[in-house]
Write a structure and sequence with these properties.
By secondary structure, this protein is α/β, with parallel strands linked by helices. It is 27% helix and 24% strand. It contains 10 helices and 17 strands. A 9-stranded parallel sheet has the order 9-7-5-2-10-1-11-14-17, sandwiched between helices. It has a 4-stranded mixed sheet with strand order 12-13-15-16. Strands 3-4 form a two-stranded antiparallel sheet. Helix 3 packs across helix 4. Bound molecules: inosinic acid and magnesium ion (MG). The site of inosinic acid (IMP) has 20 residues, from helix 4.
Length: 327
């Protein structure tokens, strides 16, 4: 088995959907696997000129690649069906390719109701936290228990380990700064957003080939903690970069890229490539900055910033990406 992984290096919304979609098109993958999160995620994908936002469904369906919702995920069944219908009505065949690991968990109406008025953390109010809490309290509901999911249910061991040639693209959700273990607790999501989440889904560590860490050239965050720095230019970044949540429509808080967080996430994920999205936005503003603790470094061009980042990020290939600017 060979596995490539796409993970978020910041606070989600880095453009993982775009990167995974491009990799799925160019690679020889037999499967695409979503390994964490649920409908809290919103992956914006441009496919044949149309814009799609996926929440549960892995991007393999756009190319007829079997696409698995893994055991690290939680599923809202009504929202999953709405998502299937939305994609199918736009010409994407989902039902023939979607698979759900029998040991994925379900977001029940109770979970959803419980999260609906959450304020302390600033969750997406989709019931994710309560579903994971019940999973770990050993009173959750497994996907295999719901007759509505029957047609999609698989045993991930049989699907991935009993075939000859398996090449899996693992599509992560959220990002390092939101990870349950590595993020800024309690302002985190409830799943494993690093490669740990991939291994927990039954992908052996020895199968992992490339880890594509995805970041933006600046940072955004949605949630209850104060995140913005003091800078007028952030309003311009928000508007030029369309920094509003794909799932909730909330305005994203902005800050300059934090090199310390980035280096931690590159090391802990073992990222072999680092893609920085939205370079076009800083180019439009002709302002390039990075922060390290209290210090803010300024650069004269994208090339200067890219060179500086390359020399500070160990063992991985740094790539600046300019388009499309919407994520
Ligand atoms: P939850 O995952 O809905 O419980 O939310 C916990 C935190 O993670 C909140 O700050 C959310 O805004 C954030 N979050 C969850 N999913 C995403 C995502 O896909 N993109 C960005 N932020 C997210
Ligand atoms: Mg998103």
């Amino acid at each position: 088995m060979i596995a490539d992984v796409v993970v978020g290096l910041q606070y989600g919304d880095e453009g993982k959907g775009k990167v995974a979609h491009q990799l799925a098109r160019n690679g020889n993958y037999t499967h695409v696997l979503r390994f964490n999160g649920g409908c809290n995620a919103g992956h914006t994908i441009y496919h044949e000129g149309k814009k799609f936002v996926t929440h549960h469904i892995p991007c393999g369906v756009f190319y007829g690649i079997p696409s698995i919702i893994g055991p690290g995920c939680v599923i809202n069944v009504d929202k999953l069906y709405a998502e299937i219908e939305e994609l199918e009505s736009n010409g994407i065949n989902v039902t023939d390719y979607l698979m759900i690991a029998e040991n994925a968990h379900v977001i029940t109406d109770f979970h959803f109701a419980e999260d609906r008025h959450e304020e302390k953390i600033g969750t997406t109010r989709t019931g994710n936290g309560p579903a994971y809490r019940d999973k770990y309290a050993r009173k959750g509901v497994l996907a295999v228990e719901l007759p509505e999911l029957d047609e999609f249910i698989i045993d991930i061991f049989e699907e991935l380990h009993c075939e000859e040639k398996v090449e899996v693209l693992c599509e992560g959700a959220q990002g390092f700064g939101l990870d349950i273990d590595w993020g800024d607790y309690p302002y985190v999501t409830s799943s494993h957003c690093t490669v740990a989440g991939v291994v927990a889904c039954g992908i052996p560590h020895s199968a992992i080939r490339d880890v594509w860490g995805v970041a933006k050239v600046y940072e955004t965050y949605v949630g209850a903690k104060k995140f913005d720095g003091e800078d007028e230019i952030f309003e311009e970044i928000r508007s030029l970069g369309n920094e509003y949540g794909a799932t909730t429509g909330r305005s994203r808080q902005i800050n300059w890229l934090d090199i310390q967080l980035l280096i931690r996430s590159v090391y802990i994920n073992g990222a072999t490539k680092v893609i920085f999205n939205k370079a076009d936005i800083l180019e439009e503003l002709e302002t390039w900055r990075v922060r390290e603790g209290d210090k803010v470094y300024e650069f004269a061009s994208s090339n200067d910033m890219e060179f500086w980042l390359s020399s500070h990020i160990p063992n991985s290939h740094v790539i600046f990406s300019r388009s499309p600017s919407e994520i």
